[in-house]
Amino acid sequence: MNKKITIAIDGFSSTGKSTLAKQLANNLGYVYVDTGAMYRAVTFFAMQNGYINVESFDKQTLINSLPNIKLQFKFNADLGFAEMYLNDVNVETEIRTIEVSNFVSKVAEVSEVRAKLVEQQKEMGKDKGIVMDGRDIGTVVFPDAELKIFMTASATTRAQRRYDELVAKGDKVTFEEVLKNVEERDYIDTHREDSPLVMAEDAIEIDNSHLNREEQFALVLDLVDDMTKTL
């Protein structure tokens, strides 16, 4: 039997990191952790409590409130994946809105928020057999991961994917609004002082601008097979 490994998937927003990670976890029998959902849940908490809005961001009050934030993933057998719970309430739907997307990169900039979540993420992956996606998984959370993937695609391609996804859910958004959000998140993610989005030196870059989900999955599954055979 092949030895279990840690798979770290990083990359820009709306590159399909979570979709790929779920596919791999299901196929390999690994644990899947969506770190983006964790940052989104903290952002939703901040929005609920009035700590962040279009005019202001009360970072210190959010930092002081971190001990009151309980995050859990609970597996939903009907859906086939784990959903995000914030203080014992299912917020999986609420955290996927464009409103949360507009603030999540700003919340993720806060060092104290990152420290809290990275600590939890490291604990989740201590036994390997895990697929984790985010912005700093291969560089900060699991720098020793056996397989690191860095996903990218053009901003226009990513915005179109995100727009189609939101419209399919019934959200009232414009393509221009989504594209602006993608570009702003790219800038914040790559320019923040604490753990900016960068490709790890030993990561394998995949530009999926012209790949469908099946092609991408087959490509990465081959990489996993090659890696586990050498261990």
TrEMBL record:
The keyword Ribosomal protein does not apply. It catalyses: CMP + ATP = CDP + ADP; dCMP + ATP = dCDP + ADP. Keywords: ATP-binding, Cytoplasm, Kinase, Nucleotide-binding, Transferase. One of its GO terms (molecular function) is dCMP kinase activity. InterPro entries: Cytidylate_kin (IPR003136), Cytidylate_kinase_dom (IPR011994), P-loop_NTPase (IPR027417). It is an enzyme of class 2 (transferase). One of its GO terms (biological process) is nucleobase-containing small molecule interconversion. Its EC number is 2.7.4.25. This is Cytidylate kinase. It comes from Flavobacterium omnivorum. The lineage of its organism: Bacteria, Pseudomonadati, Bacteroidota, Flavobacteriia, Flavobacteriales. The gene is cmk.
